[in-house]
Design goal:
The chain has one domain (about 15-80). Helices cover about 35% and strands about 15% of the residues. The protein has helices at about 15-20, 30-40, 60-70; strands spanning about 50-55, 75-80. The chain has a two-stranded parallel sheet with strand order 1-2. Strand 1, helix 3 (about 60-70) and strand 2 form a beta-alpha-beta unit. The protein is extended and about 50 Å long. This is Alcohol dehydrogenase. It comes from Arthrobacter humicola.
């Protein structure tokens, strides 16, 4: 999970504990993390399509960064296509 602006709530703490589940936080990333994400995607372990707000040409990278920075259109993830 990433950052949350609300307190987290585990609805069934006993089951959560029994199953030895964990909540892990993350802030920031390293270049190697991108390779890990690609590998997980290729293995079918994660799926991004519901979080892709828009696909734009690579030539529009500056505009994509502006949209993310200014939250123009409330984007989650913008994919740049070569």
């Amino acid at each position: 999970m990433g950052l949350a602006d609300q307190p987290l709530h585990v609805s069934n703490g006993t089951l959560f504990s029994y199953l030895r589940q964990q909540i892990l936080g993350h802030y920031g990333s390293a270049p190697a993390d991108v390779a890990d994400l690609v590998s997980l995607y290729e293995l079918g372990r994660i799926e991004f399509s519901r979080s892709v707000s828009r696909i734009m040409p690579l030539a529009d990278a500056a505009e994509a960064v502006r949209m993310l920075s200014e939250k123009d259109g409330n984007p989650i993830r913008i994919v740049l296509k070569p």
